[in-house]
Specification:
heterodimer; A: 580 residues; Rossmann fold; FAD/NAD(P)-binding domain; 4 domains; five-stranded parallel beta sheet; B: 382 residues; 7 strands
């Protein structure tokens, strides 16, 4: 069948039209081989523009289409959808970026026009060699594995589990609720953390689509989005359980930085120096003091010092919730011991958001002193504890206290490394899991189908963690619709069995672990689900056995030839010609 | 050369060949290995070829050092083990360049070294294959005269500038002959090599300095010759015009690729249809350039091959021997190979554990790219 190529140049408002002489471009490319129609349009990405394209494809019975407009990052998908609607396979289309890569960066209009002509010529030569690709679909499991039974994991499981979707919630300890369980009060509403957890656990237990596996650890996760094989071992019963899920949510929570590493605070050596979590545990009704705030000698403290930012400098980040819960501690202390004297030693107060400033102002009213200190230390003798501090200006002071509460930095769970390796999701320099994109894709990891929520991503408040549970549920619900098959990338790599000589170079350079070696046939094989189409293997394979669909050798060659051909001709007008 | 090498002497009153064959006979009878892969004179005396010998009596035709390189030894071992290791233990008698190519192919998944014992021998080089084809007897006698001294004129040009003619690191056992009187020096370089000496009741002693100093002196001399030769070649072959001229007599037979031990592809890209274009494309190219040399892609084939294999090129010279129009292919490739290998601090065949440079990423390399970008001259302002 004869090829009929449609070429459409977008003015992009004035973005392209102002720099590139589009009429000259159209004159230059119209006579090229198989070009059926070459036209300009104001804004091809607009609704009208898309309708115009669709009609033009149908009217001219096009077999291929070239659109010269903006970056493929922006509108490749838009125009591919237009092709699909017009009955043209979307891979028979090529988008040429004459905005970012031409109009915006080429100072001279004449140069920009010549450059645009070359770019479009290249695309026209390329599309001659395009072939229709079919998007493949695979069956996938809609079920989800949630690792970690803290508040983030509980909420995510509740939202994900439906009659058509099972959620497996794996918790290594014997009870659900994580750290929140030991918070007797939550800021800012001063409700009981335990009660909140109990409510949530109750609703969790009523949901028969959630399988809760406590005292259990995830031992192995193999596979990919839609098809993860999971092995969980119940440590108490020494029982192994295997099941399949379509997605994995890591909600492994946090641990506190150990203040023993900083001897100036006397933690572990001096009596009545506690971490914030130890103070929380002392304050819950079923704790070892029955909820009473007591010193080691059994008496209530008359004065309490709260030291902020323990380990902040060492870890290199602010844990962002310590200031807030320290205000909660003030209220807990005052409600139990109205006469207690409270002093905060802080270097910066972090009170972001709409409600915390007020919470702070109100707390100050009930009687807490805030001392700004650049350097704080704790010493002790038989009379009690002394807090030595130094202001930023260098003046020194000290203050006595019966009890010291340290606010240590939050760290990633000690299991983080294990899961990073098991799931191949990287940790950042602060040892928290890396987001796929910090701003645009915060709960997804670098691996498709694996998500990270709550404090495993970095310090979070309870409400932030729950927002992330909701976000991850939204993500997973939209990707893994029960019964719906998963659409795969069509532009993947493939390895020719007859050309592959089994040197495994491709396996070494594949960043997605998508290539395996078939020992029996002694060839490399691409997993079409894991392949992202980066092309590393195709570039590295000396045999030409690995090829990337839509970026084949003839396609790239023709594209280059299309760019360079014009140049040779121009040059050779004046230059001597020679046989190469 | 490592300083902690040890060696055992083995009697060779009858010369290098007889001594080597005695050693093989003893090792076979002691069960050090089950079979030998060694160059042998074919029954019709028409050529030398590698032979897989299990029967000791057939060793009479074996030539541990033969005057020509017909098929590169690494290609032979690849043919034997590409589909996996053998059950029996094979000792392969190879020239140092063949050992190095074998090690490279093992990294590329084309050779399984598990049941192979690599034995190399101090190499005087080989004579051009064309000489043998013209006058076999004369060539053979010339070689046996030449082999008495190690640094010999008359061997192939690539052999004359070879600086890796002795133990190179990848072998299990090396046979030192340079400067040895009536004996061979057996130098083990791996547990496999040491176990042979143990089985034969030979004691390896640390004093191998006589042999070592002669090897070192010759290596230094060869390095100088090699540098000089590369320099001269560079002035003749560098740049597109010079390259076109150097390869102008290429007849596209692709023999150089077919005999190359490192060219391990099942089918060369340049032989496949992927490198062929519709007629009109060639017309367009001819129109653009003024004319097109045919068949197309002649120089591109050589450049493409360089790109693919020069990091692993061991300068064995098989390509040059195979070139019917006497293009100095091996010399050009050894020049390019040396430069590329130096850039990655890589010596092909030095060790089976050393990863191929293109398969590993090092942050340092990225910095180098960034720095070289920074050093690039800024575009001139007009």
């Amino acid at each position: 069948m004869a090829k009929k190529i449609g070429v459409y140049v977008c003015e992009c408002g004035t973005n392209i039209a102002e720099k590139v002489d589009i009429n000259r471009v159209l004159t230059a490319v119209s006579p090229l081989k198989d070009v059926e129609v070459a036209q300009r349009y104001k804004l091809l990405c607009s609704g009208e523009g898309q309708d115009y394209l669709k009609q033009s494809i149908e009217e001219h019975n096009l077999t291929h289409m070239v659109v010269a407009a903006c970056s493929p990052k922006q509108h490749e998908l838009t125009f591919m959808n237009v092709c699909e609607k017009a009955g043209l396979n979307p891979y028979l289309f090529q988008l040429v970026n004459i905005r970012e890569q031409c109009a915006w960066v080429t100072p001279d209009g004449e140069d920009a026009t010549n450059k645009a002509i070359r770019q479009i010529r290249a695309a026209i030569s390329r599309v001659h060699y395009h072939t229709a690709l079919e998007k493949k679909e695979i069956e996938c499991s809609p079920d989800v594995l949630v690792i970690g039974g803290g508040i983030a994991g509980i909420k995510a499981s509740q939202l994900l589990a439906t009659p058509e979707r099972k959620a497996y919630l794996v918790e290594k300890t014997s009870s659900l609720g994580g750290k929140v369980r030991s918070f007797s009060k939550l800021f800012t509403n001063m409700e009981s953390g335990l009660r909140l957890v109990e409510q949530e656990v109750e609703s969790l237990q009523q949901n028969e689509n959630i399988e809760v596996l406590t005292e259990s650890e995830v031992e192995e996760i193999l596979g990919f989005l839609g098809n993860f094989e999971v092995k969980v071992v119940n440590k108490a019963k020494d029982k192994e359980l295997k099941f399949n899920v379509g997605a994995v949510v890591v909600a492994t929570g946090f641990e506190l930085f150990d203040p023993k590493g900083l001897p100036q605070y006397g933690y572990g050596k001096l009596d009545d120096v506690y971490t914030s979590l130890e103070f929380e545990e002392m304050s819950i009704a079923d704790g070892h003091t029955k909820g009473k705030i007591l010193l080691k000698n059994g008496k209530p403290p008359e004065s309490v010092a709260i030291i902020h930012c323990v380990g902040r400098e060492e870890k290199g980040y602010c844990s962002k919730v310590c200031c807030l819960y320290s205000l909660k501690f003030d209220r807990m202390l005052k409600s139990q011991l109205p006469g207690v004297k409270i002093s905060h030693f802080y270097s910066d107060l972090c009170l972001p958001g709409k409600s915390y400033q007020r919470f702070y102002e109100d707390t100050k009213e009930i009687g807490a002193t805030f001392i700004r200190s650049a350097k704080t230390g704790v010493t002790g003798n038989e009379k009690g504890l002394t807090i030595d501090y130094e202001t930023e200006a260098g003046s020194k002071g000290n203050s006595a206290a019966d009890m010291v509460i340290l606010l240590p930095a939050m760290e990633n769970s000690s299991d983080a490394q294990k899961f990073a390796e098991m799931l191949k999701i990287p940790l950042d320099e602060k040892n928290f899991f890396v987001e796929e994109h910090q701003l645009l894709s915060p709960v997804a990891s670098a691996v498709e189908g694996v998500f990270v929520i709550g404090c495993a991503r970095g310090p979070q408040s309870i409400s932030e963690s729950i927002v992330q549970s909701e976000a991850v549920a939204g993500k997973i619900l939209s990707i893994l619709v029960p019964g719906k098959k998963l659409e795969l990338e069509a532009r993947t790599s493939e390895i020719s069995e007859s050309f592959c000589t089994g040197c495994k170079t491709c396996i070494d350079v594949c960043p997605y672990g998508a290539i395996t070696f078939n020992e029996a046939r002694r060839i490399s094989v691409v997993n079409q689900v894991l392949c992202h189409g980066c092309g590393n293997c195709a570039a590295a394979c000396p045999s030409g056995a690995a090829t990337l669909k839509h970026f084949t050798f003839p396609q790239i060659y023709q594209e280059l030839a299309g760019v360079l051909r014009q140049e040779c001709r121009e040059k050779n007008r004046e230059c001597n010609r020679k046989l190469i | 050369m490592s300083d902690n090498k040890q060696g055992a002497t083995f009697p060779a009153e009858g010369g290098v060949r007889e001594g080597s064959l005695d050693f093989i006979r003893q090792a076979l009878s002691q069960g050090c290995f089950d079979a030998v892969l060694i160059p042998a004179k074919m029954p019709l005396s028409d050529s030398f070829a590698y032979a897989l010998i299990e029967d000791e009596s057939l060793l009479k035709d074996a030539y541990p050092l033969c005057p020509i390189m017909t098929v590169q030894g690494a290609r032979v071992i690849s043919a034997l083990t590409r589909r996996g290791k053998g059950k029996k233990v094979l000792s392969a008698w190879l020239r140092p360049c063949e050992v190095r190519a074998t090690v490279e192919l093992s990294k590329l998944g084309q050779i399984n070294l598990e049941n192979i014992i690599l034995i190399s021998i101090d190499c005087p080089g080989v004579l051009p294959l064309a000489d043998w084809a013209k006058e076999p007897e004369k060539t053979e006698s010339a070689f046996s005269e030449l082999v008495k001294g190690i640094d010999i004129e008359g061997v192939r040009p690539i052999c004359q500038i070879c600086d890796k003619f002795s133990a190179t690191g990848g072998e299990d056992l090396h046979i030192g002959t340079i400067g040895m009187q009536d004996s061979l020096l057996l130098i083990p370089n791996s547990p496999k090599g040491r176990s042979i000496l143990d089985n034969l009741g030979l004691q390896a002693a640390p004093d191998i300095s006589d042999w070592q100093s002669q090897v070192d002196a010759l290596t230094a001399d060869r390095k100088k010759k090699r540098e000089q030769a590369h320099k001269e070649l560079e002035s003749r072959a560098k740049g597109l015009d010079n390259l076109l001229h150097t390869f102008s007599t290429c007849i596209n037979c692709h023999n150089c690729m077919r005999v190359c031990p490192i060219c391990y592809c099942r089918q060369c890209f340049f032989d496949s249809d992927n490198s062929k274009f519709p007629f009109e494309d060639y017309l367009v190219r001819a129109e653009a350039a003024g004319g097109l040399r045919l068949p197309p892609e002649t120089l591109l084939f050589h450049i493409g091959r360089m790109l693919h294999m020069s990091l692993s090129c061991v300068s064995c010279g098989a390509c040059e021997d195979a070139c019917p129009t006497s293009i100095p292919v091996a010399q050009v490739f050894s020049l390019v190979g040396s430069k590329n290998q130096k850039a990655f601090d890589y010596v092909p065949g030095r060790s089976a554990d050393e990863p191929l440079p293109l398969r590993v990423y090092q942050d340092r390399e990225f910095e180098e790219v960034e720095q070289s970008g920074a050093r690039a001259p800024a575009p001139e302002e007009t």
